[in-house]
Amino acid sequence: MRVVALCALLLAASCDARLGSRLRARLLSGPRKATATVGHDAPPTDGAALRRGNAANVAEVLKLVEEKDRWAPVVTSGRCRVWRLKSAGSGRHACVLAKGELDASPDAVYALFADAKRAKEFNEFCEECVDVATLDGRTKVSWSATKKIGPFKARDFVTLCHFADLPGGGRIVVNRAAKHASRPATAAYERGEVVLAANIVRAAGGGSKTELTLLTQINPRGAIDSGLGAAISNKLVARSPVAFFDAIERAARAPPR
User: Fold this and answer.
1) What is the pLDDT of residues 82-138, one digit of tens each?
2) What is the C-alpha to C-alpha distance for residues 196 and 24, in angstroms, rounded to an integer?
3) Under a CB-based contact definition with an 8 Å cutoff, are residues 178 and 203 in contact?
4) Whose CA is closest to 196, among 213, 175, 179?
5) pTM of the entire structure?
6) Within 13 Å, how many C-alpha atoms sit on residue 207's CB side?
7) Which of 197, 211, 222, 226 is the right S-S partner for 204, CB 3.0 to 4.6 Å?
8) pLDDT tens-digit profile of 209-228?
């Protein structure tokens, strides 16, 4: 999952020697106030409730990405353009929007997001990524984890993933933090939170290329969830989609491993 790559990138940069010993000490000391545990419920077992929740999540993403006046530009040129949500409602952790074109077919790009086993093809930081439950034909629960980087614990995520077709063509994957009995939080990982994430895949270039839209907001929790850590992670999360587009394109064009 791409949230694993983004979280790992911000952890790696936080361990960079250029940050200096004083900054590193402040990060490692953690937040001054203890952060709350991830407060998401298990997905509903009732099919109608699950469908309503999925539809609401899709509608929220589509509305948000179209509200152009709410986004401040971060990267304005190149193959991938990046914006950050301006509203205070996004919280301490940046909500980032990225759009660009990939020289790969929409089917090939979408297949990467649909199959947890292929995460390592485009995500060098992914240690594990598995589907732990199938809730219906288009919704699943996945568990993923980063590697340990420097002094920071590995992060893990439990995510509700919903796949949907869009009116007028295109497909979307919406991800949100969830709980699942098979993957409780453990001492082995710092449990992170996917506040909101989405991949929107549309055909471009006559169908041979892909217009990819990414929406990402994650809370890595733990030591880096301090005010200072959030400031660093926000900068990295805003920059990382550019590299992510390159990795997705390479993986989508290559034969599956």
Assistant:
1) 898 887 555 567 788 999 999 999 999 999 988 888 887 887 778 889 999 999 989
2) 28
3) no
4) 175
5) 0.80
6) 1
7) 211
8) 999 999 988 887 765 444 54
> How does pLDDT run across 39-62, given as a tens digit for each residue?
467 888 788 999 999 999 999 999
Q: What residues contact 200, with CB distance under 8 A and at least 6 apart?
A: 61, 65, 166, 170, 171, 172, 212, 213, 214, 215
CA 129 to chain centre: 13
Quick check: 18 pLDDT over 90?
Answer: no
Query: What is the number of residues in the chain?
Result: 257
Helix (H, G, I), strand (E, B) or coil at 58: helix
Spatial distance between the Cα atoms of 226 and 203, rounded to a whole number of angstroms? 40
In sequence order, which ranges of the chain are alpha helices (DSSP H)?
Answer: 2-14, 21-29, 47-66, 106-114, 119-122, 227-253
For 87, the token pair is 């509203």
* Cross-strand bridge partners of residue 82: 75, 98
Domains of the chain: 2-30+40-253 (3.30.530.20)
CA nearest to 213, candidates 223, 198, 192, 230: 198
- Greatest Cα pair distance in the chain: 53
CA nearest to 198, candidates 98, 104, 81: 98
Instruction: Record the tokens describing residue 2, joined without a space.
Output: 């791409």
d(CA 40, CA 178): 5
